[in-house]
Amino acid sequence: MSAFASAENQNRELARQINEEARSNPASPYAGKFVGIANGQVVAVNDDMDEVVRRLRAVEPDPRKTFCIEAGLDYNQVQDIWSYAPLVCGRCRPG
Question: pTM to 2 decimals?
Fold first, then answer.
């Protein structure tokens, strides 16, 4: 197994555990936060996703070895993101 595949598997498993904890325990320190994981370790927990991304880039320059989740979300549920497009890009208008 390559170093990349190993880091990816570790990151995904840790993310799954953190999300499961956050979903089952609203008092979890991860609940409702963005969590940055690099090489199988939590390296950032913050309300601000941009801050988590900055920390991830500082810790691990190879993005293939990093992972970011919003802990507590149901990632099996389909999310409609098109209704939020105007907030992301002023030129994007659904319809």
Answer: 0.77
